[in-house]
Amino acid sequence: MTDANDIPEDAAAWLIRLEGQTTPQLWDDFQAWLEADKRHEAAFIRLRTAWTHCDRFKLLRPTDGRVDQNLLAQVPIVDTDVPDPESDTAAAAEAALDRIDRRRWLLFVGATAAATAGVGMLGWLSAEHRRWTYFETDVGGNKRAVLADRSLVLLNTDSRLRVRLANARRDSELIRGEAFFTVAHEKSRPFYVKAGRTLVCAIGTAFSVRIHEDRSVEVLVASGRVAMGTTEPGSGSGSPVLPDSAPQAGPDESATAGPAGPLLIRQQPPGYVARKLAWTMGNISFDGETLTEAVSEFNRYNRRHLAIADPAIAQMKVGGSFEADDPESFAATLEKHFGVQRMPAGRGDNDVIRLGSIGQRTTPRP
């Protein structure tokens, strides 16, 4: 295992190498270094974030291709408060959600994405990066990837996304589901996300985009600002742009757009965005949602569905943080704290957890 004192220097060396001319072999070597020790990934994310948020780091990049291991030591590094990769992931997630602020949310998700097994380093190595690359997840699945521009993408359950990096712009299209983007700062090459008629443009931002079942689109901004607008139906697969006057959303704001309706931007209360993005840590967090809404959210992540057997409890308000892939624990919590009972399974519905009220008739359905 690498000596802890050497990890920051190695991460700095890799950061500078990847700023220059890259080759397929270089990407392979970098991926191998990331996978060799989970501390490598956290250290690299820490320095990468500082790099993308401080332009003067780039002025120190060597022009002759040689790497000075003490280079970044010449410049104060921002305290990024990246969670210790040696600590328990669930405990770190819970603590982080309690203390999260605008800057730390970006870094928190970045570190989580890199520290989770299965990170993919994806390189579009053609001259202009014009080919689409597709990402897809099944129900209950997720995918985390570091793009060739050093942006991070987290794909949620039952989602499909395509990405294309070109010289002048970076394009992605969310075809279904939900994705979280931590966009590497490149002022001259904006990052676009298209979802239905909604178009989002970012430069160096952390935000999520979700397509709901009714085809409405929701954008949540965790850090930075995004510009947004809508495209005309049938606009094709070209490269749409947004005018300078396009509305913008900032930290702790959300934007929603119906399939044919206007774009609405709202300021959300503190903690709202972090709670909605708990899925990036494998959790679901509720704070006053109805039981109907909570059941619908759980069913996104599981093939074994929850069902409300008594309409009297449908509008009950629930709260708490739960593992997204564990509806059994959610049902047990409802029984213990919310006056809900689990109903016996009927014939042919063993894959359904039926929820009823205390005192409701518990005879199994035929």
Characterise the protein shown here:
The protein is α+β, with helices and mostly antiparallel strands and 366 residues long. The strands form 4 sheets. It has an 8-stranded mixed beta sheet. The radius of gyration is 22 Å and the shape is globular. The protein has helices at residues 7-19, 24-36, 38-52, 55-58, 89-99, 102-115, 272-276, 291-301, 327-337; strands at 120-121, 133-136, 143-146, 152-155, 160-165, 170-176, 178-182, 191-195, 198-202, 206-211, 217-223, 226-230, 248-249, 253-257, 263-267, 283-290, 305-308, 317-323, 340-343, 352-357. The termini are far apart. The chain has 9 helices and 20 strands.
List keywords for this structure.
about 375 residues, 8-stranded mixed β-sheet, 7-stranded mixed β-sheet, 9 helices
Which class do the helix and strand fractions yield?
A: alpha+beta
User: What's the rounded overall pLDDT mean?
Assistant: 78
Low-confidence stretches: 55-61, 71-129
* Percent helix range: 25-40%
% residues in beta strands: 25-35%
Q: What is the secondary structure topology, with strand pairs?
A:
Layout: H1 7-19, H2 24-36, H3 38-52, H4 55-58, H5 89-99, H6 102-115, E1 120-121, E2 133-136, E3 143-146, E4 152-155, E5 160-165, E6 170-176, E7 178-182, E8 191-195, E9 198-202, E10 206-211, E11 217-223, E12 226-230, E13 248-249, E14 253-257, E15 263-267, H7 272-276, E16 283-290, H8 291-301, E17 305-308, E18 317-323, H9 327-337, E19 340-343, E20 352-357
Parallel strand pairs: 1-3, 6-8, 17-20
Antiparallel strand pairs: 2-5, 3-4, 4-7, 5-6, 7-10, 8-9, 9-12, 10-11, 11-14, 12-13, 14-15, 16-18, 19-20
Helix pairs in contact: 1-3, 2-3, 3-6
